[in-house]
Structures are given as C-alpha cells and as structure tokens.
Q: What sequence folds into this?
C-alpha cells in the first residue's frame, strides 16, 4: 500500500537524491519532489504542500540553516536535516532554527525512512482531536480537577507537584494512546529532549504511587517496553 506523505528532498548531491528516492519508493513513499538548491526548494514550496522535508546543510546557493529559517516563515512542516556536518554545534543549530531531527552522513537510508515514519506518527497524534475535556475526571480509583489542581485518591487530597498534575492532565486528555518519553517531555515540559527521558520516568513512578497503581504491575500508567507509556482509565471513561 502506498504512503500518501509528500516529501521534499533538498540536496546538491545527485547520488544522495537518487539513493533516497529509490529507498523511499521501495518503502511505498511515492510523492517525492527533489531540489538541488535553496532557490529550487523555495520554488517547490510555493506550489506544493509537503508532509516532510529532508534538508542538506551545504547547498550551492547558501546553507540549509538559513533555508530552514525561511521555510519556517512559510510552514510548520517537519524538517529532517541530513548533513555531513556532524558536530554538536551543527546539530544544535539545526534544531534551534526549526529542524525536527538531524542525521549525519554517511547514513543508512532505512534509518531515514524510520525517522520519517516516526515524524509522521507524531504528526498524526498531534492532529487527532482530543475528546471533550470534562471539568473533573472522575474514576473509581481517583478523581482529578485540572481547574482546581487537586488530585483525590480514596477520598483524600494527595499532595502533588505542578509537573505531576500537568503530566496526569495530559494522560487524562489522551486515554488509551501510547506516547514515547520524548513526546511526553515535549508536550508537558515544552522542550526538546536532550538526555531528559529519566525526568519522565521519575515523574511517572511518583504518579503511580500517588494513584495507588501497582508499581511492579501497573494497570493505570502502563509501560509498553521499548515503545512508551499509555494511560488506561480505571473503570472506563470519566463521567
């Protein structure tokens, strides 16, 4: 089955473009547009809407960082840098100007495909409308009032930090959906992750204890090993 994602590949090396095109088509991505310069890329963006952009840093008429900034004036489309410039400074620069990911050359083309699929999955999650938000989430195991910032377990208010409440609120708004630690960190803490996965796991462990969830075999905040976390509402949807 073909993938409907529209991809713009920007690179001045024809060999790289051909390699990516062949790999992407084998992986059922069929809507591919290519550009070998900043000018061609910007022209393509004026006549097409894309779901992902693969962007080289070194281009004949400028650099990809400047082009990324210009693209961000036009669209929020996810941008994946692919570059031979591999220093931490270059990677941080790419992310700071609006890039969503960064891969260094030489690269495995299948890794690029995997990153694209991950980006598209995140986009679908963010674009899926959340169910109507009740003023109070009422479950048999606990109740939670976001407006009052109060978590009640067994009829007693539980002392909870602001970030724990924000994390719980995010889970309650998106029941039965799996989120990676990266997605949780970006949505609750509002930043990109640089070695901060442990922050998420620590907060989830604390929330489990406060919700009375079994820390060894949790049933509310469930860990899907190697994938992420899912909030399973105890006894169905909130009333």
A:
């Amino acid at each position: 089955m073909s993938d409907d994602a529209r991809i713009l590949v920007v690179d001045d090396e024809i060999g790289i473009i051909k390699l990516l095109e062949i790999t992407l088509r084998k992986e059922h991505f069929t809507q591919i547009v290519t550009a070998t310069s900043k000018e061609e890329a910007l022209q393509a963006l004026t006549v097409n809407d894309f779901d992902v952009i693969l962007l080289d840093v070194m281009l004949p008429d400028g650099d990809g960082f400047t082009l990324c900034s210009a693209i961000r004036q036009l669209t929020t489309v996810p941008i994946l840098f692919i570059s031979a410039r591999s220093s931490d400074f270059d990677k941080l620069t790419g992310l700071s100007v609006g890039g969503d990911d960064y891969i260094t050359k030489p690269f495995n083309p299948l890794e690029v495909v995997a990153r694209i699929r991950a980006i598209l999955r995140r986009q679908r999650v963010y674009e899926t409308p959340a169910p109507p938000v009740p003023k109070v989430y009422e479950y048999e195991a606990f109740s939670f009032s976001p407006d009052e910032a109060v978590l009640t377990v067994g009829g007693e208010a539980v002392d909870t930090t602001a970030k724990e409440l924000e994390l719980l609120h995010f889970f309650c708004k998106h029941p039965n959906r799996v989120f990676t630690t990266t997605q949780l960190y970006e949505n609750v803490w509002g930043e990109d992750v640089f070695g901060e996965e442990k922050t998420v796991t620590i907060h989830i462990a604390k929330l489990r204890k406060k919700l009375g969830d079994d820390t060894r075999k949790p049933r509310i905040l469930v860990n899907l090993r190697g994938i992420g976390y899912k909030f399973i509402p105890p006894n169905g949807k909130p009333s």
